[in-house]
Design goal:
This protein is of the alpha+beta class and 171 residues long. 18% of the residues lie in helices and 36% in strands. The chain is built from 3 helices and 10 strands, in the order H-H-E-H-E-E-E-E-E-E-E-E-E. 19% of the residues are buried.
Length: 171
């Protein structure tokens, strides 16, 4: 019986050591702490995935994104610049058009419908509460030749929206 308890104890200790080696620090898997000053925070970053294949096959572009060292919130103005961890919103530009729309929610998805068939791109830019852009990423894709939803209204311009929180804004 004592031998059995020693074996179980040894297995438990080995498992705990292995788990400790995998997660060296709480900071490795978490966002910035609110107790850190902005000048000590790592730079913000946005990671944008290619569009989901199934909706794209129907002519609907669903792009998922995530941010690092940056929280998407509907706050604007200079007072929000001092918030830590860093906050802001996204500027989303479709096909280099002269305007963008703003995403200020945490849905982590951008949905664009009504693009004509052919090559397109979506640029997702982090923006601070005063709309100063902090860096972004562009994803390129091709909308297939036929769409179950037909062309966009007027046949020329995309209808852009997000699940919630989108605001049209002139650049």
């Amino acid at each position: 019986m004592a031998k059995r308890f020693r074996m179980i104890g040894a297995a438990f200790v080995a498992a705990m050591l292995a788990a400790g080696a995998a997660a060296q620090s709480a900071k490795d898997g978490l966002a910035a702490t609110p107790w850190e000053t902005l000048d000590k925070e790592p730079p913000p970053k946005v990671i944008v995935d290619p569009p989901l294949a199934e909706p794209l096959s129907r002519g609907v572009v669903v792009v998922q994104y995530r941010t690092e060292n940056f929280r998407i919130v509907p706050e604007v103005g200079t007072a929000a610049l001092a918030v830590s961890p860093r906050v802001g919103h996204l500027h989303v530009t479709v096909d280099n058009l002269p305007w963008h729309f703003v995403v200020a929610d945490d849905s982590n998805s951008i949905i664009v419908a009504g693009l004509p068939p052919g090559p397109h791109q979506i640029h997702v830019e982090l923006a601070d509460p005063t709309h100063r852009e902090l860096g972004g990423q562009t994803v390129k894709f091709v909308v297939p030749g036929s769409s179950a939803h037909g062309p966009s209204p007027g046949g020329c311009c995309p209808l852009a929206l997000t699940v919630r929180g989108a605001v049209n804004q002139r650049a």
